[in-house]
Amino acid sequence: AVVSTQSTGSLDTLVPQKFQFIGRRPAATLHKVLKGIRAAVDSPLKSVKLNTVIMKGVNEDEICDFVSLTKEDPLSVRFLEFMPFSGNAWSQRKIIPYQA
């Protein structure tokens, strides 16, 4: 049997109201997502990664909050660029460049 040694998840905000807006899921379900991340971190997995899409005017104010998650726990947060795809209302104004 193949046993996984890593887990990767996606979470773009730590704020319930933004979670509902971005994910189109009830704000109250954010705690379930955070609970799942906690369970993965507390498990014997060797690697737990969290992908986070940063969007200007939406969640860039949470970058430090996501980084702080890595201080105490063996969690890697990867910040991803907001990319266009069908139905996501992509706009150049939502892009945060890695260099100003």
Task: Describe this protein's structure.
There is one protein chain. The chain is of the alpha/beta class and 100 residues long. Helices cover 31% and strands 19% of the residues. The chain has three helices and three strands, in the order E-H-H-E-H-E. The protein has a three-stranded parallel beta sheet with strand order 1-2-3. Helix 3 links the parallel strand 2 and strand 3 (76-81). The longest helix has 13 residues, at 30-42. It is globular. The relative contact order is 0.19. The mean pLDDT is 86.
Q: Which tags fit this structure?
A:
100 residues; alpha/beta; 3 helices; 19% strand; 3-stranded parallel beta sheet; globular
Largest sheet: 3 strands, parallel
Q: Could you give the distance between the termini? A: 48 Å
Radius of gyration: 15 Å
From the spread of the alpha carbons, the general shape counts as globular
The strand order across the widest sheet is: 1-2-3
β-strand number: 3
**Tally of separate helices:** 3
Protein structure class: alpha/beta
Note the beta-strand portion. Answer: 15-25%
Mean pLDDT reading:
86
> Could you give the order of the helices and strands?
EHHEHE
Low-confidence stretches: none
User: Helix proportion of residues, in percent?
Assistant: 25-40%
Q: How are the SSEs placed, and which strands pair?
A:
Layout: E1 6-10, H1 16-23, H2 30-42, E2 47-54, H3 63-72, E3 76-81
Parallel strand pairs: 1-2, 2-3
